[in-house]
Amino acid sequence: MEFGDCPKFRQSRPSGAGHKHMLKQRNDMRVTGIQFSCEESKEQNLSKAEELISSAVKQHQPQLVCLQELFTTRYFPSQFDYSFFDLAERIPGPTTERMARIAKHHGVYIIAPIYEEAVPNLYFNSAPLISPDGKILGVYRKIHIPLFDYTLEDETNGEKRHISSYEKFYYVGGNDVPIFDTEIGKIGVLICWDNEFPELWRLLEMKGVEFVFSPYAMSRPSGEFYKEQWLFEARCCAYYFTTYVMKVNRVGPEGDMVYRGKSIAIDPTGQLIAGPASEDQDDILYADLDLEKIRELRNRRPRLMNRRPEVYKQLSEPLARIKNIFMGEPSTHGKPR
């Protein structure tokens, strides 16, 4: 495999060049997120990922590259089809071995999310982290597995957009929230729907995370509300848990679904520092991170030392045990006088 230049695609540029894709800060570390449209062929998707990684490294010299959720396939959980189980592979396996060669060739970390068969008939939505020397440092397995089917109206043109995800049919949730303690910093990964559970974010913060990468397969209409919702969630997570956040979404049409890209990076004050990337084209997002900023902000806002876990221990209880929710019984403070 020759690591040549990438074919045509959109790419982020510094804001000083008239773009909002990149707002520069102290250059402690550079990371990139790569979004692209996927084809039916796993080989085509792998080849495109290789080309984009090569281009990202050549032009931006990042220490880490993050790919989108399930980057070797189309988003198959949008429909039921038993044949899709054949898309799963082991870790280590063909894709991670290929990504390991690329990581070693370029001297970068790679987050390469794939459909994993851990043991026969046990499947996960997984994101292995591969080191610059080609080793798998660990695997994050998506914890919260969605199952939904609904329609949204695009506020720009009134078009009805069908959105479906039958992930529970294809894989189960993981049960670990690892931190990857690397020479470039403490890395956390949350895949797509996991981002909507603040308990995971707080746990990552307690473990000392410094930057969180979030591979996505997010399909949404093109209206301003959904664009703002995408940005708002990332800004809140970055601010409340004092960490850098990079969301890397897939892009382009796949059957009835349209993936909107718009990958972004946020700093720990909640400010947009890179993106949004293209809404409809392959794109490379890059951001410079200053890890000293995290330490400074955590000292200024010492949330962890002010936690009161004894007050909110019900957070770890199943809802069925919280009677006033299911039985309509008022809590002590909710009783009328």
Describe the protein in words.
Helices cover 23% and strands 27% of the residues. By secondary structure, the protein is of the alpha/beta class. The chain has one domain: 4-Layer Sandwich (Nitrilase/N-carbamoyl-D-aminoacid amidohydrolase), CATH 3.60.110. The strands form four sheets. Strands 1, 2, 3, 4, 5, 6, 7 and 18 form an eight-stranded mixed β-sheet that branches. The protein has a six-stranded mixed β-sheet with strand order 10-11-12-13-16-17, covered by helices on one side. α1 runs parallel beside α2. The longest helix has 19 residues, at 42-60. Residues 1-11, 13-27 and 333-337 have low confidence and may be disordered.
Taking all residues together, what is the mean pLDDT?
88
- Largest pleated sheet: 8 strands, mixed
Helix content: 10-25%
CATH first level: Alpha Beta
Low-confidence stretches: 1-11, 13-27, 333-337
What is the CATH topology classification name? Nitrilase/N-carbamoyl-D-aminoacid amidohydrolase
The N- to C-terminal Cα distance equals 75 Å
Examine the secondary-structure arrangement and name the CATH architecture. 4-Layer Sandwich
User: What percent of residues are in strands?
Assistant: 25-35%
User: H/E element string?
Assistant: EEHEHEEEEEEHEEHEHEEEEEEHH
Which outline best applies? Answer: globular
Summing up helix and strand content along with how strands pair, one would put the structural category as: alpha/beta
DSSP, total strands: 18
Number of helices: 7
**CATH homologous superfamily designation:** Carbon-nitrogen hydrolase
Question: What is the number of independent domains?
Answer: 1
Rg of Cα set: 20 Å
